[in-house]
């Protein structure tokens, strides 16, 4: 299930501006020449367009279900997040899939990011899509638990992937069957936790299912690409 190399998109312009503010503050420490570019106490000003929202409002507002929002809280420890910018939505990602179709062997592309707000411990989740002309094959790595959703769903303590096929009004039969992948991944090198392993796997799978289902509906896939309305979190019977 190795994906092609991908380019990293700038999902987080707000934090970029804040980082520059922090660096400027460090340079100004102890100097009387610093301008009023910062708040008292040396903290950077928050940009006027900065917003903090509930999980259900992320990624265009139709990607994260209430259940998935609770899963994000379990993963990140936060119940509110930096608002997604207008260009990072499931609807925009679906447009890109339609434009690329039927040549879908395009590597990994971003849908949106999930970020804890300023003042909270930093935590970043990347949500992205990929595609293939063929369904998934082979066995997943040992850290993944396989779940019975779509063509294949696998979940680990720091990521989950939902594979599903799509044929519908926006991806016509005549051009073949699209095999899509939704990935939700902690954007850091995480150490394997000793506790809450199943809870974390279930949480990542719940978020990935929510985004995959939203994408299937946006693309108008027949029978929602075989995805259930609610996540199925029981492992596939290996017998």
Write the layout of secondary structure elements.
Layout lengths: L12 H16 L23 E3 L11 H11 L3 E3 L7 H11 L8 E7 L8 E9 L12 E3 L4 E4 L3 E8 L11 E9 L10 H22 L21
Antiparallel strand pairs: 1-2, 3-4, 4-8, 5-6, 6-7, 7-8
Helix pairs in contact: 2-4, 3-4
Q: Gap between N and C termini, in Å?
A: 22 Å
Give the overall shape, derived from the CA principal axes.
globular
Question: How large is the share of residues in beta strands?
Answer: 15-25%
Q: Which sheet architecture does the biggest sheet show?
A: 6 strands, antiparallel
Individual helix count: 4
Please identify the structural class as seen in this structure.
Answer: alpha+beta
Order of helices and strands: HEHEHEEEEEEH
Roughly how many Å is the radius of gyration?
20 Å
Low-confidence stretches: 1-42
Largest beta sheet: strand ordering: 3-4-8-7-6-5
- What's the helical proportion of residues? 25-40%
Number of strands: 8
Mean pLDDT score? 81
């Amino acid at each position: 299930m190795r994906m092609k190399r991908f380019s990293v998109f700038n999902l987080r312009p707000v934090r970029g501006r804040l980082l520059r503010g922090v660096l400027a503050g460090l340079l100004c420490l102890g100097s009387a020449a610093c301008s009023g570019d910062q708040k008292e106490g040396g903290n950077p000003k928050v940009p006027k367009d900065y917003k903090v929202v509930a999980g259900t409002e992320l990624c265009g507002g139709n990607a994260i279900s209430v259940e998935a929002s609770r899963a994000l809280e379990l993963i990140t420890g936060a119940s509110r997040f930096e608002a997604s910018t207008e260009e990072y939505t499931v609807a925009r990602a679906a447009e890109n899939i339609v434009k690329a179709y039927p040549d879908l062997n395009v590597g990994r592309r971003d849908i949106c990011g999930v970020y804890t707000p300023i003042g909270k411990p930093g935590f970043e989740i990347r949500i992205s899509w990929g595609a293939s002309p063929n369904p998934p094959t082979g066995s997943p790595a040992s850290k993944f638990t396989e779940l019975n959703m779509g063509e294949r769903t696998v979940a680990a303590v720091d990521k989950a992937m939902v594979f599903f096929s799509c044929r519908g009004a926006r991806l016509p039969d005549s051009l073949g069957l699209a095999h899509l992948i939704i990935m939700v991944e902690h954007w850091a090198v995480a150490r394997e936790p000793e506790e809450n392993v199943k809870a974390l796997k279930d949480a990542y799978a719940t978020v990935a299912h929510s985004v995959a289902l939203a994408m299937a509906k946006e693309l108008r896939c027949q029978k929602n690409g075989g995805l259930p309305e609610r996540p199925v979190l029981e492992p596939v019977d290996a017998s």
